[in-house]
Amino acid sequence: MKRIAAEGIFHLVSPHSMKTSRDRLERALTGAGFIIFAHFDHSRAAAIAGLQLTPTLVVVFGNPRGGTELMRLAPSLAIDLPSRILLHEKHSRKTDIFSRLAYAAERHGLKDKAREVAAFDALVIALLRKSLWRPSNATRCKPMPDKRRIGQ
């Protein structure tokens, strides 16, 4: 496991393929009460434009029970929500995963919500670690009544 101390980024190298990492990550997220809102497949878009890009996928996820309150306090935070995790396959065939809300919350002036944001980041990091390194029995957040997938 490798972490980079870059501002706003958590970095983890997965031993799994891109597809396996995505599947395990999404099961962990939905199992913890998050909704998968969308996928941005940058490598597919590049191919459509006749360009090449190593496999690069963004998973967009969240839970309105947490994000709505933060956006009420700082409407500009909506530009950074829902949260995103980047899966990027490098030459070594490992998949890198990035995510961190605290940087965005600070950028939008939500210093008084630092505890809640830190708890969110800790949960997502725990889900990343458990889904990519161990069988997933992750900590749960309060689930949405309908855990359906919105968009693709």
What does this structure look like?
The protein is an alpha+beta fold. It has 5 helices and 5 strands. The protein has a 5-stranded antiparallel β-sheet with strand order 1-5-4-3-2. The longest helix has 20 residues. The N terminus and C terminus are likely disordered.
Please give a quick description of this structure.
The chain is an alpha+beta fold and about 150 residues long. The chain is built from 5 helices and 5 strands, in the order E-H-E-H-E-H-E-E-H-H.
Features:
152 residues; alpha+beta; 5 helices; 38% helix; globular; disordered N terminus; disordered C terminus
Mean pLDDT, to the nearest integer, reads 82
Kindly provide the radius of gyration, computed on alpha-carbon positions and rounded to a whole number of angstroms.
Answer: 15 Å
Discrete helix count: 5
Outline: globular
Q: Helices and strands in order, then pairings?
A:
Layout: E1 11-14, H1 18-31, E2 35-41, H2 42-48, E3 56-62, H3 64-73, E4 83-89, E5 95-98, H4 102-107, H5 114-133
Antiparallel strand pairs: 1-5, 2-3, 3-4, 4-5
Helix pairs in contact: 1-5
